[in-house]
Amino acid sequence: MNKYSFRPFLAATLLFAGLQTVTAQDYLVNSLKNNKSENSKDSFIFTDVINIENTPVKSQGSSGTCWSYAANSFLESEMIRMGKEPVEISQIYTARNAYIEKGKNYVKMHGAITLGDGGALHDVINMYKKYGALPQTEYTGLNYGTTRNQFAEMASMNKGLLEAVVKNPNGKLTPNWEKAYTSVIDTYLGEVPESFTYKGKKYTPHTFADEVIGINPDDYVEVSSLKEHPYYSQFVLMVPDNWSLDLVYNVKMNDLTDIIDNAIKDGYTVGWAGDVSEKGFSWKNGVAYVLSKDFRSMTKKERESIFKGPQKELEITEDMRQEAFDNYQTTDDHGMHIVGITKDQNGKEYYIIKNSWGASNDYKGYLYMSKNFVKYKTTAILLHKGGLPKKIAKKLSIKK
Q1: What is the 3-state secondary structure (H, E, C) of the chain?
Q2: pLDDT tens, residue by residue, 39-59
């Protein structure tokens, strides 16, 4: 039995999105996003410690593309950090390219790998490196009369096409399946321009990435923490949406928050992926923390008070973190963007998190996540290697 009744919906959306994308996303819209809380802003008093400049909040609509919205928001903040004028990067151009690569992997793996909208933070870096980037104005992904992302029909078409390819009815695959698959994606999302004009200058996706955005994709690292693997080495993070089987760096649990703290204090923002299905995560209240006791054992009064001001939290250990991951209680449900540090009225620090569900909660699209929640529920973080503490970078053999 699942820990929470709505975990199947969350697991199907955001990072694990597939054919159930619309159902899952609409569930979240109706249940979590549009109703502002009755008490959050009166019960929690947050004072910013560091709030790094970032671009406006977006909405991923009915699509499981949070990973692309989160990591592209992160890249936009990187532009600001480097003294550049930020541009809204097309999140769906990134997703489109990941869909192409994911389809190729799906066929190579005979269908035994994840398909659908989902992805990981590193996919944005990988697609940037291979395909470049486009501004949002040149590639909205809204190619069939909608005003918001709505990808379930396309996902269903893609799955049916690729399943037919995997069955190999001719006894030998032809190269035409890739053309057919790409054609479906481009029919829904739009064809990619070979070149375009931006602020009076002509670019290709690659020259736009190089000359306007200007990041070096090799400067970015992805970090996780699991006790089952040797610390300060690399391992394949075994979550379904790591379809590319990328390696992540493994650090101790407390290193995760030490890395984030160091990065934020040095002016670097951080991409975050993790679990948002906990009872201590409330989008409408804009707060995420670890309950001190099991929600099922709470009294009605206790349940009603969990977001009425700061509460005591459960202390997290590496064993608890590993067990939660092993038992599917920590899954990579969602991706977001850490942009700062704040304190509540008791002086306790939280991270300022930018989400991609629109400006639909008490904090206009942001929320405040405790450090214990990050230690417990993070699956991976993405950051510029310059944000790593020197000692940790040395242990990981990363030259800053």
Answers
A1: CCCCCCHHHHHHCCCCCCCCHHHHHHHHHHHHHCCCCCCHHHHCCCEEEEECCCCCCCECCECCCHHHHHHHHHHHHHHHHCCCCCCCECHHHHHHHHHHHHHHHHHHCCCCCCCCCCCCHHHHHHHHHHHCCCEHHHCCCCCCCCCCCECHHHHHHHHHHHHHHHHCCCCCCCCHHHHHHHHHHHHHHCCCCCCEEECCEEECHHHHHHHHHCCCHHHEEEEECCCCCCCCCEEECCCCCCCCCCEEEECCHHHHHHHHHHHHHCCCCEEEEECCCCCCEECCCCEECCECCCHHHCCHHHHHCCCCCCCCECCCCHHHHHHHHHCCCCCCCEEEEEEEEEECCCCCEEEEEECCECCCCCCCCEEEEEHHHHHHHEEEEEEEHHHCCHHHHHHCCCCC
A2: 667 899 999 999 999 999 999
